[in-house]
Amino acid sequence: MPSVVVPSAEGATELSSTEPDWEYLAASTVVSSPTPLEMLAGQGVEAAAEEAVRPSARESPRISAATEILESEDDTPSEEEEVQSVRGTPTGVLCEQVVPLLRPEVPELEEALQLSARSMALARKLQKAALKLRDEMVANARRKIDELRAKVQTDSSVEHIQIRNMADELVRKT
């Protein structure tokens, strides 16, 4: 254990090799203003304590399937009622503190969303153009194949006729 410097009764300091007096050290630290995170944690703890003493917070969160009542359209709370029910809870406190921090981010996110939408539209146009080009190339290839097939059949028919004529001529000569 490292030694700790402790003030003595005479005002001089002496070196102690014993365990430090944690209460003294905690009391002698300089108190600074709490950070936003510490403030948030403190408010969350206070709100959680308030919520814990409410009767609804002590009830069991489990509801059996037999006792569960499905909400009808008339039973659903409005958005304003939901906001009021969250206010004062740790979730509500956290939302009240986080939402203002996120507001400056909204325009950047909207711009990113618009850029993404434009990119997606461009990608769709490119894909559509690529599919159209592919279809045109396939149609051209099929047309060329059909032309070549017709030419081969014509050439084959002509050769077949020529061979038959030559065979007939040979038969006549013999």
UniProtKB/TrEMBL annotation:
Residues 1-20, 48-89 are annotated as: Disordered. Residues 51-61 have a biased composition (Basic and acidic residues). Residues 70-83 have a biased composition (Acidic residues). This is Uncharacterized protein. It comes from Marchantia polymorpha subsp. ruderalis.
